[in-house]
Amino acid sequence: MLLLGSVLAFAAVAVVLIAVGDFVLERNEIFKSLRSVRQIEIMPTDLRRRELATPFTRRLLVPALRGLGSFGRKFTLPSVTERLNKEVIYAGSPVGWDGERVLAIKFATTAAAAIGMIFVAKAIHFHAFRGLFLILFGVYLGWYFPEWVLRSRSGKRQGTMRRSLPDALDLLSITVEAGLGFDAALARVARQEGGPLGEELHRVLQEMQLGKSRADSLRDLGDRTSIPEFKSFVLAMIQADIFGISIAKVLHVQAAEMRTKRRQRAEEQAQKVPVKIVFPLLTCIFPSLFVVLLGPAMISIYNAFKHAKK
Questions:
Q1: In angstroms, rounded to a whole number, what is the distance separating the alpha carbons of residues 156 and 90?
Q2: Is residue 243 situated within a structural domain?
Q3: In this structure, is residue 245 part of a structural domain?
Q4: Residue 142 burial (C-beta neighbours within 10 Å; 0-12, 13-18, 19+)
Q5: Would you say 91 and 157 are in contact if contact means Cβ atoms under 8 Å apart?
Q6: Which of 34, 200, 284, 310 has the least CB density, counted as fewest CB within 10 Å?
Q7: Among 227, 243, 265, which residue terminates a domain?
Q8: Which residue range forms the structural domain that includes residue 229?
């Protein structure tokens, strides 16, 4: 009887504890739900404050450019947008920039240049034909100027990467031959080089850490650059990864090839110098030499003829 009473008492205590525990857990869940609701209620206020903290010009221009880009994309060929997207990628993919935004800026600068040229033509009192020519020149300049700036930036970035590639491959080959794995060697080179090449190598490492295969990451790296040497290096690394070839040997061969190509480019640039210097010689240096050398003689001849006539 005593044993039965103890069992019943223990069961009652257990039931009470379970009920209390369920109640506490339920209250915690309720509190969590209420906290989430409060956060949802607070979020619009925080977003509004954050939105108001941004400059007014940015709040005005960014949506306007987005709408103008969507509108302009309907009147342009898809190949134009694709080309602009590639140029943006070659320029380093600045945050918030894509081909559609560049297209919007092209439309905006075209309209601004055309309106500006209209005012200039009226201020100078140009004839109708000359004014029309000036407006067309403004349209041409406004349409192509943003793309020129973008190409200049992408070309400068790609040129920096091309100049850094041979040294980076030498360092990568040395670190792999010293015993480091390819990923660790790539991280070392990315820290050592910096600049656009270091940024691209860091991006490759981040993509591999997120689960993308090495071949896909390297293939994307080749797509983000317009340098033939870079594409050759990426293709060699992908083939070495697929067929199990020694990466150290492949890197050694690639480094030697890049050094040879860099020397050939330097020789090519040196051979172009005589041709490029002809125009400055003809327009700037030779006339000055003629004036210095023949000037006194011409003055003497003029004075001699003048005295002979007398």
A1: 10
A2: yes
A3: yes
A4: buried
A5: yes
A6: 310
A7: 265
A8: 163-265
